[in-house]
Write a structure and sequence with these properties.
- It is elongated, with a radius of gyration of 43 Å.
- Among the domains are: about 100 residues; about 40 residues, no CATH class; about 30 residues.
- The relative contact order is 0.07.
- The protein contains 5 helices and 7 strands; from the N terminus they run H-E-E-E-E-E-E-E-H-H-H-H.
- It is of the alpha/beta class.
Length: about 250
């Protein structure tokens, strides 16, 4: 005698169907990440530090996901080998002088491997070949550098603020120059006096030139300068004539 109701059988069937659907979907996702359904070839590279890279992370070439990280193995205390699975259709674009680097998706995103473009005349990569690598920059190093820069900027900002406060309060030479009206007026008077003194000096020099005692001296000087100019013009014309004859 059947003790299960029709509703129970329907629920059981839906549960089994849902479980199979989730299983197939999971297999598809995992297989896609591992490139199980696409022909692939393997590349390898070594690093001193992989910077948090994990198995299954993406591999990009020209900004496009072309594979995944297949394995990460510590060779010794200073070398870590990284194996990559790359789609077979990408092999024709990867050259032997391409380089492997570790980056991230954004500032705090997941780690990924990038393959740089090689030169046009370099041979194509082979199965299992090792590519040269660029060591990743640690996030901690970047954050430390940013912290130092921020600290320096804070010090500079504080010192500038102190300088502006002193200037506004009339403290220091620059502050007194800007805020003290008497000092500013004295500076203006000094400049005016210098202009007047320069003008008087020009007038005195003009007077000396017209003085009988100094007139001969200035005439000789003017004739000498005119003679030098005339000799320079003649020399230039003579040189020009020689070049024309040649």
């Amino acid at each position: 005698m059947d003790t299960h109701t029709q509703k129970f059988k329907i629920r059981l069937g839906l549960f089994v169907a849902g479980g199979l659907t989730l299983f197939i979907f999971a297999v598809f996702i995992i297989g896609k990440q591992k490139n199980l359904f696409n022909p692939v070839f393997k590349l390898t590279s070594t690093f001193h530090n992989v910077g948090g890279l994990q198995i299954g992370n993406n591999v990009r070439f020209s900004g496009i996901n072309v594979g995944t990280v297949d394995n990460i193995v510590i060779i010794n205390d200073s070398t870590v080998r990284t194996d990559l699975l790359i789609k077979e259709e990408i092999r024709k674009f990867i050259k032997t002088d391409c380089r492997i680097a570790i980056g991230s998706e954004g500032i705090i995103g997941d780690k990924l491997v990038t393959i740089s473009q090689g030169s046009a005349d370099a041979p194509l990569i082979k199965e299992g070949q090792r590519l040269e690598s660029n060591e990743p920059v640690e996030t901690d190093v970047i954050m430390t550098s940013l912290a130092i820069t921020a600290g320096n900027a804070e010090v500079i900002t504080r010192e500038l603020a102190e300088i502006m406060i002193k200037i506004n309060s009339g403290t220091g030479t620059l502050g007194r120059l800007i805020q003290d009206k008497t000092l500013a007026e004295n500076l203006d008077k000094t400049i005016v006096n210098l202009k007047q003194g320069s003008k008087s000096l020009d007038e005195n020099m003009t007077a000396i030139k017209h003085n009988i005692l100094f007139k001969g001296y200035f005439n000789k000087k003017a004739k000498k300068e005119a003679k030098l100019k005339e000799d320079a013009v003649k020399a230039a014309e003579k040189k020009k004539k020689k070049s024309t004859k040649k």
